[in-house]
Amino acid sequence: MDERRGVWCGVLLWVVFLTGCAGPTSRIDRSAESEQAEPRSSATVPTDWESFGHSVQGRPLRQRSIGRGPRRALWIGGIHGDEVEGMVATEELPSAFAAVPGLGDRVTLTIVEDVNPDGRAARRRGNSRGVDLNRNYPAENYRAGGSRGPMALSEPEARALYELLGELQPDVVLVAHSWGRKPTGPAAFVNFDGPAEALAERFSELSGMPVVPSTNIHGTPGSLGSLVGIDRGIPILTIEWEKGTDPIDCWQATSRAILAVIAGEG
Ligand SMILES: [Zn+2]
Question: The CATH number of the domain where 125 resides is what?
């Protein structure tokens, strides 16, 4: 699939999403934000996406960067195809980032749109081969088989993100997820791996989402958290919004928290 078709696919998905899934949505008022952003911004909002690989079905995997600072932050807007709550955050992050005075001098933020566009198109968790792209990384706890894939990095989407991680060498990673509310436990929470407890606590303070340590979650072999946080010692936060929440509400409830973590306010 070529780039232009991929773009149209993205547009179509967005339209389908707005009309078929999320129900009535309110528009985000950016007037106050843009008034602040113009004179004080130290970062230029990027308009174009760059491809860093392709999915099994040929959809482009896309990223863009903003800022030129020494701290390197990576945002991953989606990895499970049926968890779309982070999509507005992914769209809004560049202008929100640019609106924070001086942030672009301190931080370079790379935004990955979605690691699993095939899964998102089909509205299912795994990629088009049924592999969970958050269980396909060569972490020490990886176990081959089933939805984890026949071997680590068996999937092109996982390989592309793995290579991007190597290129970027991020200082912090944030990943957008969502989960269905359980009878017990919080509706939404933030989870962390690696030396990210202070960042997770800060995120929690600003968002109201409780921190749930990885020790409270059943094993996640071959996950990004295992590879990046546990094996490599890089702080990584997994944001778990409540599944089905309007993505605009998700962004508005967590935008300050996300920007604080990106800025390194732990
Ligand atoms: Zn997920």
Answer: 3.40.630.10
